[in-house]
Structures are given as structure tokens and as C-alpha cells.
Amino acid sequence: MRGTPVGRADAFLGLPCTAPPVKDLRFAPPAPAIPWRGVRDASRQAPACLQFQPGGIRETQATSEDCLYLDLYRPQGTRRSAKLPVIVWVHGGGYTQGTGVIYGGQTLAERTGSVVVSINYRVGALGYLALEQLDAENPATGSGNWGLLDQVAALQWVKRNVDAFGGNARKVTIAGQSAGGSAVCTLLASPKAEGLFARASIQSAGCGLGERPLTTAHEEGSAFAEQAECTEAATQVSCLRSAWAPNLVAAFQTAGGAGPVVGTPTLPQGSTEAITDNQWNKVPVIVGAAAHEGKLFLSATPNITVADYESWLASYGDNADKVAARYPLGDYPSPFYAQDQAFGDSFLYCGSDRTADLLATKTRVYRYEFDDPQSPTLYGFQPAGIDMSSTHSAELAYLFDFTLGAAPVPRSSRRLADEGLLGSFAEDANPNQRGLPRWPRYRPSTHQTLVLRPDGPRVSSTISADHHCDFCADPDAPA
Fold first, then answer.
1. Does domain 4-283 have CATH number 3.40.50.1820?
2. Active site residue 293
3. One of 91, 218, 292, 392 is an active-site residue; which one?
4. Fold of 286-473
5. What are 70-118's pLDDT values in tens digits?
């Protein structure tokens, strides 16, 4: 393969890790990549996978079903014998959108001395459709986890090939954020991923997020097939495989149904259950979240009124008054920020907290909180007059040459962007670096967490309490 220089890195772009998942390979496990003769041009990125929801890419981004490619970055001039640690990035997007191609790895590779790999996987119905007919067709994997199997195929490609690029196949770290973080959890739980990585990083997600039991997935799959006008049992799969792709996207808008499917050979147990039962791919883990996860999800309705907040609190039923007492309007500049914190803590932050607590009983865990008051948000998610700092996805621009950010990382925050803690963890499963405050091992008894701020990281033992995580887990517990 012939790559191209990008910044201070060598980039090898659009590398095929499987055959194109089209025609008979639609709704099927990934197949081996098609070989080629001679030198392959690796200077251009592949399309994003077909999107089933808007928001995960820019308007000009190309998409295609033929999308199972990866991008690889290494420090410029890396020799084949270098044995550098490897970071494999699994993108987020709610299992319905997003792409690896927006996570340029050139600066991360140069900063950390790592090989950085960013992957695509099928999303929406193409990634997660479950039907009984597909189960019967694929007894070794079951159905509903095509996207998870794509992730496994990418890791198998890395294991076979990364040494040739100067990487070390024995030092692979899988990392992901949001749905990518929950995908890391399913890779921890899947027997198909055994032996393919040595460390893991789970960002802004709790294990179990987005996972579906097989019975639910079958029901959603049947509803999707009906919306796609493929109702005859005998021809349902062939009908779906021959359907025009935009019709599948349209059917998904009504029926929905995406996320890893539990109760299959690919994912026998949910990730939390697998870890609890010690039926998982045990490795050291980094777990963390952003300080204000909820803002991103509320950005379309920034002018929330007191009445709106009170109406939203009513969704908590008998616990509404307790939530209001924990997140009183008087503590926040406007109702938007009160709802943001209450929603973000319950939906994401405290799920991450519970995952850290569980994993810390099984393996070495390091925990962080990202908190930069100047951080930009995602492209298209910046309402006028609203502070969107430190929300869901804000840290991505600090790790990658990220093309979906609303603005560049501010100059005052570049120190935080340059710390390279993930690279240290990828090297020896210990993120501590000389010249920085010690990052202690996380234990549920002490909650010691590294808070990442532009004026320098600090260790806190109070963030679980600050985010009311005991209350989020059990609102009826004594205050």
C-alpha cells in the first residue's frame, strides 16, 4: 500500500478490512477482503457507512454501503520493526450515524508515538437488523450484530497486519466514545473478540447502553421489514437484500431498531452481566465522561422555561420532587442548565460511574472527567447564547484531528490537548506520565478521579457525589 504524509504522520487511508457488504452480503457477517495485485493507492479516505439518522457527518460527506474500510496513521518515518502501541478508535453516533473518517489520527499518532486506527462499521438497520430467518442463516453468529462483527473484523485485520506498519499487535487498545464506548463494552463481552486487544477505554457511556434483548430485536426487525414492504416470510430476506438503500433508511425512520443484540452467539450476555459473571475479555480499562453530558441533547431547545422544566420533571413520577431538590433552579443560570445536568447525570454520567465501579472490582481501572470551560461543541449543536462547553463529545477535538467540531480547540486549552494520556495507557496500561499529577487507580471506596482541565489535571474524590450518582441509581435511598 502506498500511503501519504499528513502533518507529521504517515497516513494509509481507505484500507479494506472486509469485502463490500452489499448484495448477498447485506445483513450478513463480514467476509474476507478482496485481494489485489501490485501497489494499492492508500491516499484517500473511503465513504462513511450509509447513515440512518442525521447529525453524525457534515452535509458534504460521501456515504455508501461499500464502507468497511479503515484509516491508519503512524508517526512519520516509523520503521517496520518499531513495535509501537496501537489505538483502535470505534466511533459513536447512537448506532445509527457517524463514521471513522472524521477522526483524523495524525496528531494523536505523532503526539503519543502510537499507531492510530479509525474504523467504520455498519450502522442503523444495515448494522443491527435481527430476524429469525437471519438467525437460521447464520447459526455461528446469529443476527442483529453485523456492526459488532465489523468491529471484530477490523480488529482481526489489525492483529494480522499492524506489525507491518510498525505497530505491536500485542499492545492494542480499543477506545470509543458514546455508542463507540458502549461498543467497547460489547467487545469486552463478545467471545468473538477474545485475544484481539490488551486494553480498553470507555468514554461517555455506561456498559449496557443501547443493548437489546433478542426478543425485542426480533420484534423491531419484523416492524422494520414491514415498513420496507418485505412481509412474505419465504422471501423476506431476499426482498430486504434487493431493496433500494434509501427505502431502508426511510423504513428505519418509522420502525427504528439499532444497537447490539444480546442472546446470540456473538453476544451471549449483556456486557454488564458478562463482566459481573467474569465471562469477559479481561483487560485494564480507562472510564470517563464529560462534566456536562446533557447539553448536547438539549441544544435544539435552548430556551427552556420554568414551566418546561417542571413539566419535564413530571416524567420522574413520584420522584419528581426529589429530582427537583437535587437540581434546584436557583443553582443554575437558567432552566436549560438545570435540565442539562439532571438529564446528563442520569442518562450518561452515572452510567459511566456504575461501569467504573463494576470494572474496578474485576481489573485495573483509571477514571477521568473532562471539564474544559472553553471547549467547543459539535458542528450544528451551538445555539446562540448557550455555554456548550464540556458536553457530550467535547473531548473528541482534543484527541483527534476532528472534522465535526464547531470550532478549533482554543489556544488556552492546547496544553490539555497535548497531554497524551491515552498514548501512555496504550504503551503499558498505565496512563501516568512524568511531570503530571499522579493518576491513581480508581477504587469504588475512594472514587479518585482525574479531572482534566486546561490549567492542569487534578485528582478529585467527590465527582460521583457532585453528580448525584447514588441518587440516580436509587432515588429512594436516604439523602
1. yes
2. yes
3. 392
4. Rossmann fold (3.40.50)
5. 999 999 999 999 999 999 999 999 999 999 999 999 999 999 999 999 9
